[in-house]
Amino acid sequence: MVNTTFWQRRWRNLKGDYFYYLMALPGIVVMLMFNYLPMTGLVLVFKNYNVRDGIYNSPWVGLQNFKFFFKNPMSAMRATTNTIILNFMFILVGTVMAIALALFLNEVKNKAFKKTMQSIVFLPYFLSWVVIGSILYALLADKGAINTMLVSTGFEKVKWYASPQYWRVILLFTNLWKFSGYSSVIYLAAIAGIDTAYYEAATVDGASKARQLFSITIPFLKRTVIVLTLMSIGRILYGDMQQIMAQTRNNPILIPTTDIIDTLVFRSLMTSRDFAFASAINLYQSVIGMLIVLLCNFLVKRYDHEYRLF
Questions:
Q1: What is the value of pTM for the model shown?
Q2: pLDDT tens, N- to C-terminus, the chain (310 residues)
Q3: Using alpha carbons only, what angle is made at residue 91 by residues 170 and 250, rounded to the nearest 5 degrees?
Q4: What is the 3-state secondary structure (H, E, C) of the chain?
Q5: Do 114 and 105 contact (CB within 8 A), yes or no?
Q6: How many whole angstroms separate alpha carbon 290 and alpha carbon 309?
């Protein structure tokens, strides 16, 4: 009886809101085609793939495709550690920078200047990592702009492309330059959605701009920050291989601090051409990322039920 009532209620809702379901149908179909249907290919992870037999007829090998990644634990640990450290830096510092940029743009009253600044900070998002890598090389090369400036001021030039200890900060800087403007738009939209009545009431009570910032704006941004952070954490084991390859120029000297899971898999794939191995590592990244998201969402739910992602 309960089940009958439940399905009757669902049917009534479907009939009453059929137009909205029709609007969502194209998106649902696309999601099923490009996100769920390809998941049937995960069977490749547990097979010894060959072109003649195809994905589904190739022989089963169990977990053998995972062995290559873990048979050299030092390389696997280094790549995993670098990936987590870099992504953690990108998420933490990137969020702070994007919020600060959004707060700055929100306080600009001159519309022409505000639009100009938005365009300037948003522009790097459209540049490819290859272009950014070329700009970076022009700055950091032995005879680049930075070394020229250092020598002219009496300092010794730095061999940037032979000094791996600098590259986590360099990669962080270029990531901020490329994505901060894009991320700030999201927070700027969230700030625009705050009811102005709160600010008017605060002004009447004599609250300063700093007080309004910490008592109104930032608390209202908390939910947006948590949701975006949880979504970013889901890809904490995925590195941006294009960024690493374009900026380090695949320099083996920089591997200790710039080698991530994706670049390790890419180098292995170039030598072994084992597609099943690459798929296995991709599954490893996805499963660990999902577990981290579930854990973080659980902790957020314990802290405040309203801020959970699901």
A1: 0.85
A2: 445 677 777 788 777 788 888 898 999 999 999 988 888 888 888 888 887 888 888 888 888 888 777 777 888 889 989 999 999 999 999 999 999 999 999 988 888 998 899 899 999 999 999 999 999 999 999 999 999 999 999 999 999 999 999 999 999 999 999 999 999 999 999 999 999 999 999 999 899 988 999 999 999 998 899 889 988 988 898 989 999 999 998 899 999 999 999 898 888 777 766 677 777 888 888 888 889 888 988 888 888 777 777 7
A3: 35
A4: CHHHHHHHHHHHHHHHCHHHHHHHHHHHHHHHHHHHHHHHHHHHHHECCCCCCHHHHCCECCCHHHHHHHCCHHHHHHHHHHHHHHHHHHHHHHHHHHHHHHHHHHHCCCHHHHHHHHHHHHHHHHCCHHHHHHHHHHHHCCCCHHHHHHHHCCCCCCCHHHCHHHHHHHHHHHHHHHHHHHHHHHHHHHHHCCCHHHHHHHHHCCCCHHHHHHHHHHHHHHHHHHHHHHHHHCCCCCCCHHHHHHHHCCCHHHHHHHCCHHHHHHHHHHHHCCHHHHHHHHHHHHHHHHHHHHHHHHHHHHHCHHHCCC
A5: yes
A6: 13
Q: How does 162-186 read in b/e, with b if 16+ C-beta sit within 10 Å?
A: eebeebeebbbebbbbbbbbebbbe
State both tokens at 228. 């975006």
- Total residues belonging to the chain: 310
